[in-house]
Every structure is written in C-alpha cells, then in structure tokens.
Amino acid sequence: MGKVLTEITPLSEKDCFHIVERHKTEFTYPLHQHKEYELNFIEHGSGVRRIVGDSVEEIGDYDLVLIGAEDLEHVWEQGRCNSKDIREITIQFSTDLFNGELLSKNQFASIKRMLRRADHGLSFPLASIMKVYSTLDTLAAEQERFVQFLKFLYILYELSVSDEARVLASSSFAHTSRSTESRRVQKVKQYINDHYAEPLTLAGLADLVGMSPVAFSRFFRMRTGRTLSDYIVDIRLGYAARMLVDSTKNISEVCYECGFNNLSNFNRTFKAKRGYTPRDFRAMYKKNKVIV
User: Fold this and answer.
1) Of 18, 86, 110, 127, which has the maximum CB count within 10 A?
2) In the chain, where the domains are located
3) By C-alpha distance, which of 253, 237, 243 is closest to 196?
4) 292 residues of the chain, pLDDT tens digit each
C-alpha cells in the first residue's frame, strides 16, 4: 500500500514558527505527515478536497485547519477546484513551543485545550476565520519578528475560543484519545476501543459503570453530545478506515473484523459517514501515498 511521506519541515530550532505564503493554480504535494503543528489557511479554494485522517471533505472559498498529531496524515488535493489563484498560508510550529509550564497558566487554558483537540485535526468555521483574517492576511509580510510572533499568538487565542471548531479525524483512525472526560465515559470508551469487533450492547456497557441502560444512555449523550450507537459506529468506521489504508485485506474482511455483521450495511454506512465507499476510500488513499 506504500507509506505516507514524512515531511521534514524547514522550521529552525531558533525560530518560534515557520510561515510561508503561496499562490498556486493546483495542489501537487502528496499525502504526508510531520511532527510539527500546522495551521493551514486556503483562500479561493472552493472545490479543493481536504483529507485529514479519515475525514474527506470538499472545502469552500475559505478553509482553516489546525493539524496536531505527528502521525495524522493529511493532504489538500485539487478535487473540483478551477481557481487560477489559490492562496495558501501555512504556519508550522514545534510541539515544544509552549512548554508544559506555560500551557498550565490560566491565560493559555483555551490554547491548551485547542492544541489537544488538534490531535484529530480541527476545522474552523467561517466566522472564526473572518475574525483573524486581517491579521493572518498580513502575517507573512510582517518584518518585525517579535510583532509577527505576537500576531501569531493573537490568532491562536482567537481560534482557541471558537465554540464551533470541528474535530475532523476519528480517534480510532488517528490513534489518539482525549483524557478530559469523566471516568465513567473514559471507561466505556476504552472498553469500546478494546472490543469494537465484538457485539456491544447498551445494557452491557451501562452495567460496566453501574448504571441502568436508560440512565446511562442519557448520561453518555449529555457528556459527549452523541448517542452511544453513533459513537460505536464511528469508532468501528475509524478502525475500518485505518485497515483499508494500512492493509490489503478485502472489503469483506475489513467489514467483519471491525464489528459490522452485514457487508451491504457496512458499505452503505461507510459512504454515508465518509462520503465514499470503502473501495473508493482505499483507492483515493493509495493514489495519494508515495513509496518511501
């Protein structure tokens, strides 16, 4: 299946971040990953296809995404975009730019939460993009390095207080998990991750944390914003997507090894949630990978 290209970024140890602004007519860089955080902005890119983990979306005229995990593969490809002047601003910064002591300060609390969520990739809504647009628009041209860094911090802060930033990749695909939830939710999620290929029932999971099925169903939805059944399906789809990318197992094997008991239902659910059939999803990833 090939491997994902690991990018060696031009970020210097003496710099807080690296920024580059490009104007292009097409995207040609392959699927890749890197250890640095990356804030990527695209303007006039309507129709471009963005892939972050197992999230595949067609973007509008404006797109702003924060990538955090070292092994979270991502790429922007041409898709249906016909723009003759696509503008891209990429900011890359080290994972140790904000050391643990700094992130523990109250003033950095929202940025700390945002960076944690970025392990799955974060997409920001248009309202948040417009809030930082004027600063982002001139950031690359700023000659005073210290002022440039202050503007960069302002952008991060404004984005960190956005209530509508969306997580892109599923945790089971990105191999990351969140540790800020209640112990009961964590316990159930861990069990699901360990036993996703097996039959899972509301009654069994509720019993795991000493709650009645009705009470647990309400509790899980209140704490996560999702139904238990939807969460289980997404976890299974994440593992299925990872298996499609990293193995040569046929679609039927992937289906049953990830806890689905009906191939037609698996194909239908995968397409409804990911926008592509399992076969097309695998082909798309294979096309974007390079042999290294």
Assistant:
1) 86
2) 5-167, 176-288
3) 237
4) 456 788 888 888 889 999 999 999 999 888 888 989 999 999 999 999 999 988 889 999 999 999 987 778 899 999 999 999 999 999 999 988 887 688 889 999 999 999 988 988 999 999 999 999 999 999 999 999 999 999 999 999 999 998 899 999 887 776 655 455 678 888 999 999 999 999 999 999 999 999 999 999 999 988 877 899 999 999 999 999 999 988 999 999 999 999 999 999 999 999 998 889 999 999 888 777 654 3
Q: Which tokens go with 149?
A: 């860094």
Fold of 176-288: Arc Repressor Mutant, subunit A (1.10.10)
| CATH no., domain 5-167 | 2.60.120.10
For 279, the 3-state DSSP assignment is helix
Q: State pTM to two decimals.
A: 0.77
How far is residue 133's CA from residue 156's CA, in Å, rounded to a whole number?
Answer: 12
Q: Give dist(CA 216, CA 202) in Å, integer.
A: 8
Q: Six-digit token pair at 204?
A: 């069994």
Checking phi first, is residue 53 left (phi over 0); if not, alpha (psi -120 to 50) or beta?
left
Q: b/e for 131-164, b at 16 or more Cβ within 10 A?
A: bbbeebeebeebeeeeebbebbeebbebbbebee
DSSP letters of 55-94? Answer: EEEE--SEEEEEE--TT--EEEE-TT---S-EEEEEEEE-
- What sign does the dihedral 217-222-224-227 (CA atoms) show? positive
163: which residues sit within 8 A by CB, 6+ positions away? none
C-beta pairs of 222-231 under 8 Å, 24+ apart in sequence:
223/181, 223/182, 223/185, 224/181, 224/185, 228/202, 229/202, 231/189, 231/192
